[in-house]
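User: Here's a structure from my thesis project, written as structure tokens. My advisor, Dr. K., wants to see whether a designed sequence matches the one we expressed. Can you design one independently, without my sequence as a hint?
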């Protein structure tokens, strides 16, 4: 995820699958390929803040989305 320019975010960690920077792995041969669903990030943050259950988030909060392994935002 690109966080732009700024000093508030601790870098050095990639969440999700890293597609690489080879030209064939880039979107339109210039941009980093999207490998995840931003709704899943939002759902894990909501779960961490509110304690909402996985099924509630997958069924009611974000219908049709399946939450993968906990990325550990709140560890």
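Assistant: Designed independently from the structure alone:
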């Amino acid at each position: 995820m690109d966080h732009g320019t700024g000093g508030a975010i601790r870098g050095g960690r990639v969440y999700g699958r890293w597609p690489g920077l080879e030209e064939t792995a880039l979107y339109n041969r210039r941009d980093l390929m999207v490998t995840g669903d931003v709704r899943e990030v939002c759902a894990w943050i909501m779960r961490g803040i509110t304690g909402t259950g996985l099924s509630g988030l997958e069924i009611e909060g974000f219908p049709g989305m399946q939450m993968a392994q906990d990325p550990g935002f709140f560890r």
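When you compare it with your expressed construct, this may help: The radius of gyration is 15 Å.
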